[in-house]
Design a protein that fits this description.
This protein has no helices and eleven strands. The chain is mainly β and about 120 residues long. The strands form two sheets. Strands 2, 4, 5, 6, 9, 10 and 11 form a seven-stranded mixed sheet that branches. Strands 1-3-8-7 form a four-stranded antiparallel sheet, with no helix packed on it. A hairpin with a 2-residue loop joins strand 9 and strand 10. The model has no long low-confidence stretch (mean pLDDT about 95).
C-alpha cells in the first residue's frame, strides 16, 4: 500500500517562499508519476507540478511556471516543491499525488496560506 507523507505548508506573506516535501512509502515501482496538485475553496483541483520518472520530464501548471520548482530528493520516491514569490492566489490545500499505471494515490494535503 502506497502512503504519502507531506510536509512544509504554512502561513507566509506575499513574496515569501515555502518548500513542500512529499515522501511515498510502500512504493516499489521504477516508473511512476509524482507531484503536486492544489485546490482552493470553491475551485477545482489543479496541477501544480509533476515528475514523469519514465521520461525524466517535469510539467508545471501555467500559473506557477517560473516561480515553483519541483525536484527529486536523494531518497527514492521523495520530491520537493520549492515555491518562491508566493501570492495570495497561491493559497490552497496542496496535495501530493503518486500515480502508477491507472491508480492515483493522494496525500492528506497540506495547507498553504499567503497573506497580502
Amino acid at each position: 500500500e502506497v502512503q504519502l507523507v507531506e510536509s512544509g505548508g504554512g502561513l507566509v506573506q506575499a513574496g515569501e517562499s515555502l518548500r513542500l516535501s512529499c515522501a511515498a512509502s510502500g512504493a516499489t515501482f521504477d516508473e511512476y508519476t509524482i507531484g503536486w496538485f492544489r485546490q482552493a475553496p470553491g475551485k477545482e483541483r489543479e496541477l501544480v507540478a509533476t515528475l514523469w520518472t519514465d521520461i525524466g520530464s517535469i510539467d508545471y501548471g501555467s500559473s506557477v511556471k517560473g516561480r515553483f520548482t519541483l525536484s527529486r530528493g536523494s531518497v527514492k520516491n521523495t520530491v520537493y516543491l520549492q515555491m518562491n514569490n508566493l501570492q495570495p492566489e497561491d493559497s490552497a490545500l496542496y496535495y501530493c499525488a503518486f500515480v502508477v499505471g491507472y491508480t492515483t494515490h493522494w496525500g492528506q494535503g497540506t495547507q498553504v496560506t499567503v497573506s497580502s
